[in-house]
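Bug #2210: token dump truncated for Taurine-pyruvate aminotransferase?
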Amino acid sequence: MEGLAQTNDLTEVIEADRAHMWHHLSQHKQYETVDPRIIVEGRGMRVWDAAGKEYLDAVSGGVWTVNVGYGRESIANAVRDQLIKMNYFAHSAGSIPASLFSKRLISKMPGLSRVYYSNSGSEANEKVFKMVRQISHRHHGGRKGKILFRERDYHGTTITALATSGQPQRAEQYGPLTPGFVMVPHCLEYRKQWDVANYGERAADAIEDVILREGPDTIGALCLEPVTAGGGVIVPPEGYWARVQEICRKYDILLHIDEVVCGLGRTGTWFGYQNFGVQPDFVTMAKGVASGYAAISCTVTTEAVFEMFKDAPDDPLSYFRDISTFGGCTAGPVAALENMRIIENEGLLDNTLKMGARVLDNLRALQEKHPVIGDVRGKGLFCGAELVADRTTKEPADEKRVAAVVADVMAQGVIIGMTNRSIPGFNNTLCLSPALIARPDDIDQITDAIDGALTRVFG
Ligand code: PLP
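Reproduced locally. Full output below:
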């Protein structure tokens, strides 16, 4: 594989990048002194940059996406064949891949039955917000349109999705945001807000407090990540989800679970919520649905919700008046079908559980050695290590030093992530989300690199 990257004239590529590219989440001033990193090739869990340097990717394409790994010819071939046959038609008509993928997807999601296609996680979430608002107008006189979201969660980048951001820096300077979204407290037990034994139930009760304050009849939905991703890899404590479900049922509030990171397979089950025995009314997904081989997102809901848009055929406003042009691309569902087949045929859910346990074991061993690791947490191949300046006070480690750990790991040829410039004072968690194909040696290489970096940066 060595030298693969050098087959093109990359000088031209880098010049074009410097002259014309505007990278995501990047301060471009840095490129006055260093070259932008250009990733040119990927195989399995490894990628190569333009300079030919090899990396073990422990973040699945940077943002929890390439779940089945790079270079999957069977996905590329399925997409190629489908594109030649029929690439696109607006989704007011059906398509063979969308029907077949919907059926397969729903077979893994008991209690849900309808799939609405769009292009990104933000958009999939916006579809829910629109459905909830329309249900409020049609069935509750417009009064039940507020949507709750949770501190430290993230649901996307559009102005409305930012209104649901529990990571304040994401939304700063982009206001005014869409009104009608209300925040509930986070549930991270390591940073306790209540001194009680049944922390999970108490954290869920805090949602009920907000509902009562706002007025239960004004709230249409509660939107939560099953395991909070960019907000610090937060696995809700025991008892949390059961109580959340109870509260939603008590006040007739639709439960929307944002599986954009956890679906498909990231936590060792098809969806994150399936770890917790909870039954959602809406599930949204994007990144891992087709492992980044095509752009696709899905908003999945129940027959009961679907029926609410069918009950007044003579009312010109009664149906869901929404379209995403590229929701009609066939590449997405065809790639997603093959992605699901790979996960099943290669036993990747099982592998995720085994390798996830290894990540946590290795991180806990590092915690013994490095006092800077305050907390280790995760579910499946979705793990984090929170770094603190002092284990007793839990004062977060300095963000620049956390970033220095990530940079040191990168210099060793391993790519990891961190909670990045989203929660003031709390951008202190190292994030690991390797592809679901990871082997024991890969996991050990990742945690060995972190070990070395922590020694160099924190002593
Ligand atoms: N929801 C969650 C939990 C996410 O982590 C993200 C992106 O990171 C999104 C939604 C938004 O997805 P997209 O970037 O595809 O719009």
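Output looks complete on our side. The first strand starts at residue 39 and ends at 43. Marking as cannot-reproduce; reopen if the truncation happens again.
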